[in-house]
Amino acid sequence: EKGTYPHFMLKEIDEQPFVMRKIINEYQTENNELKLDENIRAAMKACDRIYIIAAGTSYHAGLVGKEFIEKLAKVPVEVHVASEFSYNMPLLSEKPLFVFISQSGETADSRAVLVKIKELGYPSLTITNVPGSTLSREADYTLNLYAGPEIAVASTKAYTAQIAVLAILAVDTAKAQGITLDFDPMQELAIVANAMEILTDQKEGIEELVREYLPTSRNAFFIGRSTDYHVCMEGALKLKEISYIQAEGFAGGELKHGTIALIEEGTPVIALATQENVNYSIRGNVQEVVARGANALVISMRGLEQDTDAFVIPHVHELLTPLVSVVPLQLLAYYAALHRDCDVDKPRNLAKSVTVE
Ligand code: F6R
User: Given the CA of residue 104, which atom of ligand 1 is nearest to it?
Assistant: First the structure.
């Protein structure tokens, strides 16, 4: 079922614009209202704090989701790695709502947290790609991702689907609380889908960047600030898991607190610059690493670009940039793995769903 694609990962990267359009359709009524289970709406309204629980890529989607929910709906959110939460539970608020994000719905670490919080009597919502999965069956409510089966071990379309659904959830919660927003989320997601399509048509350009910036390096750094930082964490995870290049995502401002010691002549540094309020600061960080010999690949957004940027993504709503900026990072990882003859769809030591602790 790969069709003409050499790998599931590439097919799944390409499916992302269609998944966005599917999500728009599934979460919209005929009158262009948001379509969401009333019980979920009520649970979101009733809680005083949201605890997002997830692992790996789904955790990275949660970090982006926190921003949506806090900025739009004004509800405080904590994002926790499932395996940590189980053994080191933070002090909970009075009326917590637990949101589990899981492509497979089977991740053991997340399931353990769900069992625990159910014992404590707290409400739960699972956001998953597999409606009949354990996390979906055992939680009080479910939101579906509609991404279609994800076969490649490295998660791509599930990540962007998770972010889109979290955006819809955040907007719906804002509206339920009487907060007026100055944009139409479905219109903005449609713009995102088009932007994704433009990027998936630029594969040759990205493959060229891999030749130029990641030819033989054993390590690579991803730097960004604000939302871009969270996407950098995901870009680094993609690169390391399939190409085995050691990669880390860093907050631009943290570099000088230690990591910059690792920058030497030719070290690849991939910088994201899609956020207006930190554009100046991240550019400063790029200069700092370039001054120490780094081979800096800047990916910026139309409107914020500079002449030396290697890649510019189309302009989308500032909150939704992760949906678009991650696409070139997924493709960078894909081509880096391909050029190193790695098994793209089935990287060593990894399983698609981690059903043991
Ligand atoms: C990375 C990746 C993993 C999963 C993680 C959680 O590409 O796929 O990090 O995101 O194992 O899996 P789910 O979302 O199924 O709970």
Answer: 15
Q: Would the CA dihedral through 138, 42, 181, 276 be positive or negative?
A: negative
CA-159 nearest atom, ligand 1: 10
3-state secondary structure of 301: strand
Handedness of CA 85, 89, 91, 93 (dihedral sign): positive
Q: Are 302 and 143 in contact (CB under 8 A)?
A: no
| Ligand 1 mean position, distance from CA 284 (Å) | 33
Q: What is the pLDDT of residues 30-77, one digit of tens each?
A: 998 999 999 999 999 999 999 999 999 999 999 999 999 999 999 999
Q: State ipTM.
A: 0.99
Pocket of ligand 1, candidates 58, 60, 151: which has the most ligand atoms within 8 Å of its Cβ, to mutate? 58
Report how far ligand 1's centroid is from the alpha carbon of 265 (Å).
34
Distance CA 5, CA 306 (A): 34
pTM (two decimals): 0.98
Lining ligand 1 with CB less than 6 A are 55-58, 102-104, 107, 110, 154-155, 237, 241, 353-354
Q: Which long-range contacts (CB under 8 A, 24 or more apart) does 21-25 make?
A: 21/190, 21/193, 22/146, 22/147, 23/145, 23/146, 23/161, 23/164, 23/165, 23/168, 23/189, 24/186, 24/189, 24/190, 24/193
Q: What is the DSSP letter of 282?
A: H
Active site residues: 352
User: Count of CB atoms within 10 A of residue 347's CB?
Assistant: 18
The answer for residues whose C-beta is within 8 angstroms of residue 278's C-beta and 6 or more apart is 225, 226, 228, 252
What does the alpha-carbon distance between residue 312 and residue 274 come to, in Å, rounded to a whole number?
Answer: 9
Report the DSSP beta bridge partners of residue 98.
51, 124
Among protein residues, the one with the nearest Cα to ligand 1's atom 16 is: 102
